[in-house]
Amino acid sequence: MLEPIMYEGGVFKHNLVIELIEDLGGYVLQTNYMQTEVMIQMLCPHEDVSMLEDLAKELRAKITRAPLTGTDIIVIAPTLAYHHLPHHSCDVAEYMRRQGANTTLIGLARGVGRRIAQISSKERALADEHDLALFTLGNFENCLMKEKYVLYKDIEVPCVITGTPELSTTPAYAKAYVGHLGRIAHRLRNEGEIGALDKLAEVVGTILDEQRLEISKDPLTTHPARLMKEIKEHIPEINKSLSPAPITLQLMGARVKLPYSQYKEAIENIEFEEGPKLGEIARVLPSGVRDYMLIRILPKSVTGFVI
Questions:
Q1: Is the pLDDT of residue 143 over 90?
Q2: Is CATH 3.30.70.600 correct for 2-65?
């Protein structure tokens, strides 16, 4: 099993970390340079994490387990209006990103109001493309418990809800609820607010770990990180994409930010060194995000093998 790890340290000799991960059979997902510092998101075999820890100690760097690494989260605000989206919704999305996740932030077209709030089928389908949906709701307990569940009750991926009050029970149809993150008219900087963001990241990480455990019971035919590596090697156009995170990893596959109509056949014909083509072990679908494509890797129970 591959552990999601985040490395934070100096640029000096950081290439040794990348070489070690590749030698161990892990994957480097993303490398971010910040002047003299570097942050590397990676997947490391569980039994070899101690070797990575020893190297990080030698380089005076820090490594932490980052369960949000390699995941795709959508943050949903009820509307694009200033009293719903700009402050805490943006901060929540940014905090999830700092923890290793790729995030998409949207505001619903008709999500305003207690009894009239709605979510369209297109918005629902977009949420289901992700690994987890995070709804940033408001301040009133009665609204959270008895009204706003209509926004997420039909979404298939786990939904985490945020709001202001502390609730004794989780709202219906939600996987979890985190309080002290309701409508806030300023950036989240105070100690209690940062603590709430930390709790949110912990709750989301726990849910994603549960999903990984469930997937491991019927493992995917190949790992999404292996899929990313093969696409980069066989489709050179992906390296010229100006989109952030041209290949967005997910727990069950990836979103590839190339035109579906133009590259579907080329993606399906990617051949693995073990023999099978990508089209034989995964479904290539149109994404609701622009004209991108969504790849869903088939489990072992369908293909009969793992590569």
A1: no
A2: yes
80 phi, psi to nearest 5 deg: -85, 0
- Residue for token digits 């994603």? 208
**pLDDT tens per residue, range 7-46:** 999 998 899 999 999 999 999 998 888 888 999 999 999 9
Q: Is the pTM of this model over 0.85?
A: yes
Confidence label for 292 from pLDDT (cuts 50, 70 and 90): very high
The rounded distance, in Å, linking the Cα atoms of 196 and 162 is: 10
Query: For domain 72-214, which CATH number applies: 3.40.50.10350, 3.40.50.1980, 3.40.605.10, 3.40.30.10?
Result: 3.40.50.10350
**Region of residue 173 (left: phi > 0; alpha: psi -120 to 50; beta: else):** left
